[in-house]
């Protein structure tokens, strides 16, 4: 950690919407200064975690998420697949490790996993952990028993995004509720698994909606250990893709995106803040500002599930220009016990 780092900011779960809105309204330089100070107090200043995300079961999901091309309600031509063979998943994990990733994330397009799928899922988790990598799964909603099974297998993180502000949730998804998401997060937390939870911006929402999104995360009893911030990738054939593809709302303003990252860092100072979907269309300057704002994790590779990603070569070139180094597994600074 930087020898001149500031004292660690207090980790609060009592943020008000008014406080969060005031952060969004700060002059841009003041906001970034606060975010960078919060970042350096709890994290390595110039280290970014490399994670790889693999779709282990693609398409055919019964949910109607307006942003997702894997929904059966979308008309994107994407063909549904069965759950990948365990050996193929572990081979992909080994390749990701060789490319520098320290966390391997596995995603399945399910509303919820079936119990018959759990033995294979457990094998995947155990196999990746044996390689010395952190493991993350996103499989949809979980029962208490399924969360405990994943915990017993050694799963490090479970991803379950809240997607957007609670009050806007039913405008994006109707086949589940915001409360359904919170219930699974509670099962994951109670099982002792780290929580990975964020959402998507650029879905036509207002700044007030982004305030509500950050507020919902920052007021959880325990902050997510990992907070992915996605920029919508409009896909033709999805509800939001068709609605926003030809409008100015299709791509969130880069400065506003950086503001969202900065507010996430200030309100959740100990969390890893990950630049996720949408990086492939961001300028290098915008990504550099996101790192200044406190983002310290990215997904590597050419694909994020089924959409394009920036790619390893571009990332390596950007890191070299910025003096950023890939984070070793032990680089994250843990908060001292209260």
From TrEMBL:
Keyword tags: 2Fe-2S, 4Fe-4S, Biotin biosynthesis, Iron, Iron-sulfur, Metal-binding, S-adenosyl-L-methionine, Transferase
Work out whether the entry's keyword set contains Metal-binding: yes
EC identifiers of the protein: 2.8.1.6
**Record keyword S-adenosyl-L-methionine present:** yes
Q: Read off the CDD domains from this record.
A: Radical_SAM
Q: Describe the subunit structure.
A: Homodimer.
Tell me the protein family, please: Belongs to the radical SAM superfamily. Biotin synthase family.
**Protein name, entry field:** Biotin synthase
| Species of the source | Rhizorhabdus histidinilytica
* Organismal lineage: Bacteria, Pseudomonadati, Pseudomonadota, Alphaproteobacteria, Sphingomonadales
Which gene codes for it?
A: bioB
